[in-house]
Design goal:
The complex is a heterodimer. Chain A is α/β, with parallel strands linked by helices. Chain A contains eleven helices and ten strands. In chain A, 46% of the residues lie in helices and 15% in strands. In chain A, strands 7-6-8-5-9 form a five-stranded mixed β-sheet. The radius of gyration of chain A is 22 Å and the shape is globular. The N terminus of chain A is likely disordered. In chain B, 69% of the residues lie in helices and 8% in strands. Chain B has a five-stranded mixed β-sheet with strand order 2-4-5-7-6. A two-stranded antiparallel sheet of chain B has the order 1-3. In chain B, strand 4 and strand 5 form a beta hairpin. The chains are: A alpha/beta, B alpha+beta.
Chain lengths: 299, 498
């Protein structure tokens, strides 16, 4: 029996050797391991899986580090060299990382300015997605009716407004800071919420207003009323992978091609449905991403 | 036997090796159990370090005070070493190794992907960092780490229990092995004993028993020669010895039977002859007398011849009588009953009263024992011996009859003060019709002592004479003593005279 195992191993080794010989014919340097990080909410988890699986399929080895933290944290991890790449929103990148609070007039402008910023410090942006996952404020329809709410500006009239959001919202321009400076909403009681607790908190009346993202699956059912943003406080939030510039240059199309073509397919509807599959149908981000890459079905 | 010895040595060796393995196994298990405890201790230290990292970081982010970072800085320096130590302690269990690897990755992720970025953020924009820390990501990561540690510890704990248990098991196995070895040895010793007994002692005992039976005369005593070894050889040697012994004893018995038969025929012949000779002799004697009475005148000088016929006839009749007596002495049934020899001797003296009186001699009979035998025949012995003593006297005969008892045998003695004889003749005098002297000097046919010898030998005894010319003779014979109590009587010498 031992002899048979040995001979089987020998045959496998020989086969492996042949395969290796085939690979080495292309004379390309071995592909590096790319560490991808994601921020700490559903859409980012799905995006991390989408980009990671795409890169693996292209022959790269990928380490995916999900749920690292908000933009401020993940940017530090990126610049410290702990990550090679992560999916980021152009608006947040500009306002919270680049510290640029000038409101871009178009999505393209936001992307170009963000890319310039990253390239100045050794990174770059790959192609952006069609979808924009902007910040928005949502209320329950009956609360909107009660306070006659249509736009963010209407929140002025409500005293001691209970504002539910991810913790970083409190210090961001696209958050409490901008609400005050752009719309003059000052009388806020900020309630920091973990990502999964946000919609339940609004449903149970623990908060009056909830900071949401426009691609979230929950918003597609019509159960919530998204307030208008007439003064464009919440900027364009198209997504683009931030990646080390040297990697992008070294591996060129081989690396950026598959990622860019993936990004081009990510529309608002696609993203919302994939988010809904995870948040509402409780599927795994990896499974949702794999299904989309294989069949094109977002969920 | 060499095979059995080898087997015992082998089993002993096996038991010893088993013991050594069990003991070393127990020691290893104990060491492993200790290793589990060390792994838990090292893991706990690492966990403490991770918690102090988080505490230092939170303290700093909450206050902005650099001094609060002290535990963070200290922890950052020591944790890689602690991870390596823990890795070393679980290196023998793949599942625990994987768990430690997972913990290491979690700590690295915590440090590189959370804590260090947060610290950097806090140094630039403390308020932003403070808002970020509320997300609890750090706490979640630490909680996950704690869960990983708990899993590691509980697994290590159960591993320790398993190892302790296996230490106990190997320990009890060691003890069991020891006992089993001991019991095995005892059983082997028992088996060897039984084997030896069955295969060596018993056959030898059988041979010994057969030898005893053979010695007691059982010529059919044999040993079953069932085996092929030395014991079998012994049995076969014994059997062939017994065979030849039986054959020669049978031959001997046959020879003695033949001798007895020819002896008997001879005696019968003598008896018949002497008996049948008596009638013609009587007739010759009668016709001689008739001749003498009726034709005395016509005989003239023939008178002397007739007297010669008469004398020869008397002598022939005496010879024939003695011959008959001799042949009768060895035949017929021999009584075997207690006989008071004193009485037997007295009867003989009474019958010899005439000759004793004529000789004017003195016959003394001392105390005599009771023996087993035939009183009538023994009386004949006394008659013959005493009458011989009277006959071969030099002057006034003095005869002394005595006896002494040695064990189960009584030795009788009839001593006289007669003419005695050459010691060289002492044996021949027991032959029938053997005479030392001319018939004119001492009358008799020379059959008396032969008759005595026959009777004594019939009783299983022995008779012999001790003598020297001019110094008298002593005839001694042995007889079996009746009953054992008699044997306590040492000697009858010096007893009262008759």
């Amino acid at each position: 029996v031992r002899f048979r195992i040995l001979s089987l191993a020998a045959v496998l080794a020989a086969l492996g050797g042949c395969g290796g010989g085939g690979d080495s014919k292309s004379d390309e340097p071995p592909l590096p391991t790319i560490t991808i990080g994601t921020k700490n909410f559903t859409e980012e988890y799905i995006l991390g899986e989408l980009y990671a699986q795409t890169l693996r399929k292209a022959g790269f080895r990928v380490v995916l580090k999900s749920d690292i933290g908000s933009s401020e944290i993940i940017d530090k991890a990126l610049t410290a060299g702990s990550l090679d790449m992560y999916p980021e929103y152009t608006g947040v990148l500009l306002s919270e990382i680049a510290g640029d609070t000038r409101r871009p007039r178009t999505a393209r402008e936001a992307y170009e300015r963000a890319k310039r910023f990253e390239e100045k410090r050794g990174f770059t942006l790959l192609g952006a997605t069609p979808f924009s996952d902007s910040n928005a404020l949502a209320v329950l329809p009956r609360y909107a009716a009660k306070h006659k709410l249509k736009s963010i500006a209407d929140l002025n009239a409500i005293p001691r407004l209970r504002m539910g959001a991810l913790p970083e919202f409190q210090t961001r321009f696209e958050g409490s800071v901008g609400l005050d400076s752009v719309y003059g909403v000052k009388d806020l009681r900020f309630v920091p919420l973990q990502f999964p607790d946000r919609y339940p908190s609004l449903d149970k009346g623990k908060v009056d207003v909830l900071a949401v993202f426009t691609t979230e699956g929950q918003l597609s059912a019509g159960r919530y009323r998204v307030l208008d943003d007439p003064r464009n406080l919440f900027a364009f939030q198209n997504l683009a992978p931030v990646i080390r510039r040297d990697l992008a240059r070294k591996y060129g199309k081989r690396l950026t091609g598959p990622l860019d073509s993936l990004s081009r397919r990510l529309t608002t509807d696609t993203m919302r449905r994939m988010n809904a599959a995870v948040d509402l149908k409780h599927e795994k981000p990896a499974d949702v991403a794999a299904r989309f890459l294989k069949t094109g079905t977002p969920g | 036997m060499a095979l059995v010895g080898g087997l015992i040595a082998l089993l002993l060796g096996a038991a010893f090796v088993l013991l050594v393995f069990a003991v070393s196994g127990q020691r290893d298990a104990g060491r492993l159990a200790l290793r589990s405890q060390e792994a838990i201790t090292a893991g706990t230290e690492l966990e403490k370090t991770v918690i102090s990292l988080e505490n230092g970081l939170r303290g700093y982010v909450a206050s902005g005070n650099e001094r609060q970072l002290q535990p963070w800085n200290a922890g950052l320096k020591v944790y890689p070493g602690q991870v390596r130590k823990l890795e070393g302690l679980v290196s023998d269990v793949p599942s625990q190794q994987a768990q430690v690897q997972a913990i290491k990755e979690q700590i690295d992720d915590y440090v590189n992907l959370w804590a260090t970025p947060l610290l950097g953020l806090a140094r630039q924009r403390l308020r932003v960092a403070q808002s970020v820390i509320v997300t609890g990501t750090g706490r979640v990561r630490i909680d996950q780490l704690r869960e990983s540690f708990d899993r590691l510890f509980s697994q290590e704990q159960s591993l320790a229990i398993k190892r302790e248990h296996s230490a106990e098991t190997t320990s009890s196995r060691a003890i069991a092995a020891g006992w089993a070895g001991l019991v095995l040895l005892l059983l082997l010793a028992l088996a060897a004993w039984v084997y030896l007994r069955r295969s060596v002692v018993r056959p030898v005992l059988t041979v010994a028993e057969a030898s005893r039976r053979l010695a007691e005369g059982d010529m059919s005593a044999r040993v079953p020669p069932v085996r092929d070894d030395e014991i079998g050889d012994l049995a076969r040697a014994f059997n062939s010895m017994a065979d030849s012994l039986e054959a020669s004893s049978e031959a001997l018995a046959e020879r003695s039977r033949e001798l007895e038969r020819s002896n008997r025929e001879l005696e019968q012949f003598a008896s018949v002859t002497s008996h049948d000779l008596q009638a013609p002799l009587a007739t010759i004697s009668m016709y001689a007398q008739l001749l003498e009475q009726r034709h005395a005148q016509e005989l003239n000088g023939g008178q002397q011849l007739v007297e010669g016929i008469n004398a020869a006839t008397v002598k022939a009749r005496t010879l024939i009588r003695d011959l008959l007596e001799y042949s009768r002495a060895g035949r017929g049934e021999l009584l075997n009953e207690p006989v008071e020899m004193k009485d037997v001797a007295s009867e003989a003296l009474e019958m010899l009263a005439g000759p004793i009186d004529q000789s004017g001699g003195d016959v003394t009979v001392e105390a005599l024992p009771v023996i087993l035998g035939d009183a009538r025949k023994l009386r004949q012995v006394f008659l013959n011996l005493i009458s011989n003593a009277l006959k071969f006297a030099e002057d006034i005969p003095v005869v002394r009859v005595s006896a002494e008892v040695q064990g189960n045998t009584a030795i009788f003695a009839v001593a006289d003060n007669g003419i005695g004889m050459d010691p060289g003749q002492a044996e021949r005098i027991f032959q029938p019709f053997h005479r030392l002297h001319g018939e004119d000097d001492y009358p008799g046919t020379g059959i008396g002592l032969a008759v005595c010898e026959r009777i004594i030998e019939q009783h299983g005894g022995r008779i012999w004479a001790q003598s020297a010319p001019g110094e008298g003779s002593t005839f001694r014979f042995t007889l079996p003593v009746a009953g054992t109590r008699r044997s306590s009587i040492g000697s009858f010498d010096g007893g009262a005279g008759a």
